[in-house]
């Protein structure tokens, strides 16, 4: 996670989309278990919103989490796992994330 904390690095806008997406995926995968509050292997909207509100969150990390949040339905649909809908809530798994990002252009 070295790059995410460096305030002097290029802004996301000046990097290629592919590089940013790859950072995004790295960030989410590295933090997945800490975001997954109930440890069920799925991130729900609630869990992502809680992660977003963490006081230590950087602007860049918040942007990454927002990206996931607005695409939740799409990402959750990527891989057909047994429980995309958990108690009426959509959840995204590590498989969903990896497959979704691998399919994105860039
Ligand atoms: Ca969870």
Describe what this molecule looks like in 3D.
The structure is a single chain. The protein is mainly alpha-helical and 106 residues long. It has a domain at 41-106. Helix content is 51%, strand content 8%. It has helices at 17-35, 45-52, 59-70, 72-76, 94-103; strands at 43-44, 85-86, 89-92. It has a 3-stranded antiparallel sheet with strand order 1-3-2. Helix 1 (17-35) runs antiparallel to helix 5. The two termini are 21 Å apart. The relative contact order is 0.17. The model has no long low-confidence stretch (mean pLDDT 84). Calcium ion binds next to strand 1.
Reconstruct the topology from this structure.
Elements: H1 17-35, E1 43-44, H2 45-52, H3 59-70, H4 72-76, E2 85-86, E3 89-92, H5 94-103
Antiparallel strand pairs: 1-3, 2-3
Helix pairs in contact: 1-5, 2-3
Calcium ion is lined by residues 36-38, 40, 42-44, 47.
Please compute the radius of gyration using only Cα atoms. 14 Å
Q: What's the total count of β strands?
A: 3
String of helices and strands: HEHHHEEH
| Helix/strand/pairing category | mainly alpha
Strand content: 5-15%
Distance between the termini: 21 Å
Identify the overall geometry. globular
Low-confidence stretches: none
Which small compounds were modeled alongside the protein? calcium ion
Counting DSSP H or I runs of 4 or more residues, the number of helices is 5
| Strand neighbour order, sheet with most strands | 1-3-2
Reported for the largest beta sheet, the result is: 3 strands, antiparallel
Mean pLDDT, as a whole number?
A: 84
Question: Helix share of residues?
Answer: 40-55%
